[in-house]
Amino acid sequence: MNSLILASLFFIACLPALGANNPEAQELFANAEKQANLFHDQARPFQLEVDFLAQLNVPTQGHLTLKWEGKDRWRSEVSIGGFEQITVRKDDRLYTSRNAGFTPLRVGQLISLLHFATGHDGQVAKKLKRRVENGVEIDCIQTEPERVKGEAHEVCVGTTSREILSVEWHESPDEQRREQFSDYFDFGEVRYPHKLQLQEDGIKVLTANVISLQSATFEDTLLAAPKGAVERRQCTDMKRATPLKTPDPLYPKSASRNKIMGDTTVAMTVLTDGSVTDIQLIGKATQSMDDATLQTLKGWKFKPAMCGVDPVVSDIVVVVSFRLE
User: Fold this and answer.
1) What residues in the chain have per-residue pLDDT under 50?
2) pTM
3) Which DSSP state fits 102?
4) Which among 249, 324, 257, 245 is positioned nearest to 290, based on CA atoms?
5) Amino acid 123: pLDDT
6) Residues 150 and 195 both lie in one domain
7) Is residue 306 part of a domain?
């Protein structure tokens, strides 16, 4: 039987609770994030230049430029291989212009990696352990979401430096992910890493190198919607689209008979009525698995994403995992 995992680029999967909160661990966790949070509300305008290497079909070089004034006023430009994308956030609107039908998964992972010290809102620290790793003494904090069951993360910081060195968690169905950060430098009141890395099951799939980070003026002209951009509404407490009717694709007989397993990854758009459109294959298994997935997802139904009482269009990524039980 196959299983389905629904996820956005920043989705946190479910695991059991860990127990009572740990005040010492919580303080360490909060201070480590604050020290590395480049994107906090009081941040001065800056320009960030990043070179990165992502594992697509082959290792591929890319570059990202981010011009930032605030959480709702920024512009990013990213290129990798032949792909190019411009994204603008202006108040409650997000404009995206790209030369392909979907954004490569690694680009979304890069954005998440760069925001490593801002992605744990609502996480609470449960356990604190000290150990030595590569000759360095570190404190590792186990965290989980405060109000709902969710994925346990292990955040390790330097005992002396209080810099975040790694974040590790389990990604459903059976993938272990680890982010690593090193070579920190000062930028105003923040210490930010020159080098950032993402591993999947111990394999390096994304490496980012900060080429420059400097204060910069931010002109209103940067917020002009790019030509041909798709517009999406954003809000602070936006609720994700949630599945209502998501039948499993049939496991292809040929794959089942030959005990072939795999993961098909699909990007798609959930409209305000909960139907889906713009279904794009971004990660392949076998052709029969991919075909079964694409055909079945056309009939999926969701409760749409919500900004307050208003349904809004949203983009999600779905991973369909074919596993024999």
Assistant:
1) 1-19
2) 0.84
3) S
4) 249
5) 79
6) yes
7) yes
- How many distinct structural domains can be found in the chain? 2
pLDDT of 120 reads: 63
Domain harbouring 315, CATH code: 3.30.2420.10
Among 188, 203, 223, the domain boundary falls at: 223
Whether residues 110 and 180 fall in one domain: yes
Q: Which of 64, 48, 51 is nearest to 213 (CA)?
A: 48
**Contact predicate 83/99, CB 8 Å:** yes
From residue 78, alpha-carbon distances to 60, 88, 149 in Å are 13, 12, 34
Report the length, in residues, of the chain.
Answer: 325
Q: What is the pLDDT of residue 148?
A: 61
Domain boundary among the residues 171, 200, 223 is at: 223
Q: What is the pLDDT of residues 173-183, one digit of tens each?
A: 678 999 999 99
Strands (E), 188-275: 190-200, 203-215, 230-233, 242-245, 262-270
Answer yes or no: do 245 and 219 share one domain. no
CA distances from 163 to 13, 30, 137, 253, 265 (A): 26, 11, 12, 50, 34
**Partners of 3 in the beta sheet?**
321
Amino acid at 220: D
Q: What is the pLDDT of residue 145?
A: 80
Residues 205 and 313 in one domain: no
User: What would the two tokens of residue 164 be?
Assistant: 């975040």
Which range of residues forms the domain containing residue 92? 14-223
Helix (H, G, I), strand (E, B) or coil at 8: coil
